[in-house]
Structure formats: C-alpha cells, structure tokens
Amino acid sequence: MKVIWVEIKKEILLLLRDKAGLALLFIMPTLLVVVMTYIQDAAFRVLSNDKVEVIWVDNDGSKISNSIKTELEASGYFVLIDSLNNEKLGVEEGKELISNGDYQVGIVIPEDFQNQFKGRVKGRVDSLLSDFGLADSIPKKNFSDQNITINLLFDPLTKATFKTSVANGIMGLVNQLETQISFQAFRSKLAARFPYNPAGNKKMKLDPIIQFQDQFIFKGGQGSIPTSVQHNVPAWSIFAMFFIIVSFSQRIVEERISGVSKRLKTMPANNKFLLFGKALTYLLISEVQVLIILMLGFWFMPIIGLPALEVNGSILLLLFFTIPIALASAGTAIFIGKWSKTRDQAASFGSVIVIIMAALGGIWVPVFAMPNALQQASQFSPLSWALEGYYSIIVRGAGVSELLIPSLILLGLFATTFALSSIKRN
Amino acid sequence: MAAIAIKVDQLNKVYGDGHKALDSISLEIETGSIYGLLGPNGAGKTTLISILIGLLKKSSGSVNVFSENTETINRKELQSNIGVAPQEIALYELLTPIENLQYFATLYGIGSTDIKERSKELLEIFGLWEVKDKQVKKFSGGMKRRLNLITALIHKPKLLFLDEPTEGIDVQSRNAILEFLKELNQKENTTIIYTSHLLAEAESLCHDIMIIDKGKKIVDGNMSELTGSSDKSLQDVFLEFTGSQYRDLQG
C-alpha cells in the first residue's frame, strides 16, 4: 500500500509541476465540452425550435401566392423575407443572398402562378364532373397538364438533413393548400349544379385527417426529452478521459528513456504496484475531470444560454461508473507507453487510436447512424460502452444492474492491457 | 583473504538476433574493493552489469552475489543491498532533490525520519543542500550527476554499481564524486563496480580492473599486474589489448 501511495503522491506532484499537462487534463476537456455543446445545440435549435428565415420571391403577387405566404408564416417554422431595405426582392437578389450564405433557403413563386393554378384546378374538377355526367357541357382543355413549378433555392453548404426537413415542411403546407383550393373549386361547381343545396357556397377548411405525434419512450414511463447538453456532456467527458492516454503514455516512455524505470527495476518495490499507483492517479484525475464537467453542465451551461444538465439517474452512480472508464483509459495508456519506443510514437499512436475509438464509439455520430459493419465494430470501442453507460444514467435513469455489462467490459480491458504491460516490463 | 562479493563463472549472453554479447566471462570481485570494468564501445560492459543487477537474464553460466546464486537468491533482499547509478540521469526532473530522494528511499523501505537524515547528510556532502527545494530540471549536468549518485546511496548499499558516473561533468564535480567514492569504500567497506571510458580516472580509483572486448575478458588484475614493472600507463595496456581502431559502429 505504501508503494502505491508514494507513487500516487509522486505522480500528482509531477502533474502539478507540468503546466501544459494540467491544461491538457483540465482546461482542454472543459473547453471541448462547452464549445462542442454550444455548436451542436445551435445546430439542434435550427432544426427544431428556431424559425428558419426564408427568402420569399413572389413573381405573381396573387391571392393564392399570398395564401401560401400566410400559411407558411402561420406554421410557426418560417420567417419569410420578401424585401430588404424596403425593396422587394427579385429572383436574382434572392439567389445572390443565398449564394453568399446570408440565407440558406428561398422560395420563388413563378409569374402567372394563380391563373395556371386555377386553370389546372378547374380542368380537374370539370373532368371529374364530366366523368360522372354532372358537367353542363364537355370541358374544353384550355390548360396545360404540366406541373406548375415553385422553385426552392438552397445554399449548397446546407446539410442534407436540414434541406430535406425544410423542403418537406414547405411542400407539406403547399400541398395542403392545393388540396383545400381544389376541394373548394369542386364544391363551388357542385353548388352551381345543385343550387337548391343550402351548403353549396359554404367556405370549407380542410384540416389534415392524419396527424403524427412524436413521443419519447422512457424507462418506467417518466423522463424528459434529452437536451443537447445531456448528449454532449457525457460524450465529451469520455473523450477527455480517453484523451489522457496521449500524455499518460508519453510520461511512461519518458520514465524509460530517462533511465528511471531502469533504476526502479533494481529496487525492491513491486513494479505492478507502481503501475497500479499510476492507474489510480489517473482515476483520481478522471473523477475530478468529470466533477468539473458536471458542475459546468449544472451551473455554467445555463449562464451561456444552454439548457442545464439534468441527470435522471444517480450522480453517485455516475461517479462510480467513471471508475471502470478511467481504469480502461489508464490501462490503454500504460499499454501504449510500455510498447512504444519513443515519446513521438506514443503520442501519435495514442492520439490516433483515441480518435478512431471515439469515432467508432459514437462520440461524433451516433452508433445507430453508422453503417452496419461500423456498428459491429463499435462493440470493440471502450468509448462506446462508456457512452452507453453514461447515457443510461443521465438520460434513462438506469440503475446498477444496467451498468454491469459495460463495467465488466471496461474492467476487462483494464485487466488485459495491464497484464500485457506487466509482461513487457518483465 | 577477503570475502567474495560477486563471483561470475562462464557467463554467456546471446541476444535474440544471435549476437553473442558475453562469451564465457568469469570474474571474482572481493568485498570492499573498487572494481573497474573497462572496454571500448560495444565490449559488453553494460550487458554484464545489467545481468549482475538483475535487469537482464543470462543465457548460461552462474552469477553469485554474496555467495548466493542469483537464480535462487531472495530478489528483494538482493535489491535492498545494491545501489545502481545508471549512465542516464535517472531522476524526475520536475521534482526537487528532496522529493526525488523521498520517493526512491520509500521504495527501498526506509522510514521517513531516516530518509530526512540521510538525504540531508548526502546532499550536504555533495553540495546540494542549498538547492534541495529547486526542481532538478534547473540543475547543471554536474549537479544532476551528483544527485544521480546520491539516489543510489540513499539506502546505504553494500554493493554499488556505477555506470560511467562522471560522464560529461566538470572537474570539480568529478573530483567530488571520486573522493567520496574512495572515502565510502574505506569507511563503509562498500564494494563498488565501476565502468568508465576515462582510464586515468579508473587508474586512480580502482583496486582491480577487468578489460573486456567483444564480449570476452581480455585481461584482469590489479594495476601492477596489468602494467607489469614497465612504465606503461593503463591507456597503453588498454590500447595494446583492444587495438586502436574505432569501435563506434560495433556496439
């Protein structure tokens, strides 16, 4: 025990004297969590809560095009920009604003839109009535069968998901309006054919018959919708914990290059205890890192306009589950440090392996969104198990039993890397 | 006749790539002597010392330390009795001398009171007490070398291995180290095994010397046995046995 304690004391002293190392351990993860959460929260808001500003170029200026505009604005998702500096926007100005990246979306209503639209609707209604022998005369085909095109303009840098969701939103509203106008025309024709019907000229409003409702299903039936903070705080905390590998493995190489490990091998202290002391030091550091990041989530995030972190499960359990994560990270660092010949080798190998494991573990892109082969491969990333455990506690309010498998896998990684490192030492 | 501290018999070391680093080395080092291990680059000095201090496994032969075979000896007991000052500055540069000594001494199982007393004694002898609270990284090469040696002495070892302890340091530091070693040897009867490229230094310090080359023992004995009755210096003897060609690429 004394050997482990003296090793921890020495490692902490070394860390406290290494200003760059301290920054890497505590300032870098803090910045990472805040910046990444802020960026992802902004993207999340664009797709969900905030209204999208849309360039509106109306070359028709008709009643129907105004109805479309009114419906889009009434939807609550869009703010239509039809003029800048009190000047009505034309197609070219709209295109320029979008190509400059000032706006991401634009809608262009073509000239003669209302006439063509009404003509198409009239043609359809007449044709339908004629099919049932209700037309006064055989309808003349005055209008083209070609679709009327409303152009949707997008900034090429717009993400596909954003483009699709905005386009679907606009098309849904316009289709609803088209149906409504078509039905109204049909009703008017029937009213003309059956003038004795008192409901003939009644205005009708067609609400959608089928509605979709999003529901989040929580364990135990209760919970709140995960926020960007709940997604990002665990993900980047884990990334930071594993990023320790880079500095930790270099420190181990440094010990060997300086001759200290040679000296240690000639001393009557058990080298495995020394290694374990190092691992425990980094466990302590990881716990402090997580505590700092949790405090950031609780108190700092709301100050900068982000949602506060809500932990649906036990914070104590979260700190407890940090133990296997930190040990898995420390074990990997010791392994890389022991098997690397130079500091550069440890730094390069350490950082590359952390980034690959983070990518596979779902830190940047959720595992479910990955191709099948990568989803299978993610099982081999300790970050995936770590993230699964953290999400379980923070979002799903999981208990000890749900954390058993991730904990065992992470501890298994620690045991394996630690044993392989000990072999190298002997 | 003095007791034997180290007895090596027909020691061989062949590395995985087939390179024979040690070839049937036999030697005896008396307790309380200063034994110089000399040889050109790549001669096998470091391999021999590494086997003696337990860092490297031998291929064949036997090694006895204080009359006990190193294969059956209690390793912890052996390690408690040996001190090693490697060629490298094997210290934590971000720690102070006191912190370094506290760390290494604790690993030797020394109590905290003894650590304080012994650290003060050694740091004063080597002129480092005034800078005991400064980080080692701020030290000169000579100061680091002295602290490197102090660390090997903190637990009062019976057997001291020094791998080029005066490499690259100023004359004052070298003189302080050599004088201390002579005094330590005389007062404490500490057996010292010492390697160096500085033949004049070895000549003034060592009681017995072995010249090793290409893994083989070339010659050993005390100074008068090596130089005979002639006026030859140790360097003359060294060059006579090992030749004057460069050896840098053969290590």
**What is the CA–CA distance across the termini of chain A?**
21 Å
The portion of residues forming beta strands of chain A comes to 5-15%
Number of strands of chain A: 6
User: pLDDT average of chain B, as an integer?
Assistant: 87
Content of β-strand of chain B: 15-25%
Q: What's the arrangement of strands in the largest beta sheet of chain A?
A: 2-1-5-6
**Individual helix count of chain B:** 9
What is the average of the pLDDT values of chain A? 84
Number of helices of chain A: 14
Major sheet details of chain B? 6 strands, mixed
Strand line-up across the major sheet of chain B: 6-7-8-3-9-10
User: What class, by secondary structure content of chain B?
Assistant: alpha/beta
Shape of chain A: elongated
The percentage helix of chain B is 25-40%
Description:
The complex is a heterodimer of chains A (426) and B (251). Chain A is mainly alpha-helical and 426 residues long. Chain A has 14 helices and 6 strands. In chain A, strands 2-1-5-6 form a 4-stranded mixed sheet, sandwiched between helices. In chain A, strands 3-4 form a two-stranded antiparallel sheet. Chain A is elongated. The model of chain A has no long low-confidence stretch (mean pLDDT 84). With 251 residues, chain B is of the alpha/beta class. Chain B contains 9 helices and 10 strands. Chain B has a 6-stranded mixed sheet with strand order 6-7-8-3-9-10, sandwiched between helices. In chain B, strands 2-1-4-5 form a 4-stranded antiparallel sheet, covered by helices on one side. In chain B, helix 6 (171-188) links the parallel strand 7 and strand 8. In chain B, helix 3 packs across helix 4 and helix 5 (141-153) packs parallel to helix 6. The longest helix of chain B has 18 residues, at 171-188. Chain B is globular. Chains A and B meet through helix 1 and helix 8 of A and helix 2 and helix 3 of B.
